[in-house]
Amino acid sequence: MISAYLDRFEEAWAVLLLGDEMKKVNFPRAYLPSGVREGDYVTIDIRYDKERTKAAEDEALSLLHEEG
Fold first, then answer.
1. Topology of domain 2-67, per CATH?
2. pLDDT value at position 3?
């Protein structure tokens, strides 16, 4: 998990400072929990979705075979 500080809002974006290095990223404001304000900390959990990746690859291969 990644700790992120909510620095500020810029229209539809939230400027987050990630981790101990405080790396700046723009993040869609709509994906933040309701009630989060500037100065709050949030936690981001990013995971590899192996099943969805495999399903997308299978679908792409199926479409290629149908065209050929």
1. OB fold (Dihydrolipoamide Acetyltransferase, E2P) (2.40.50)
2. 97
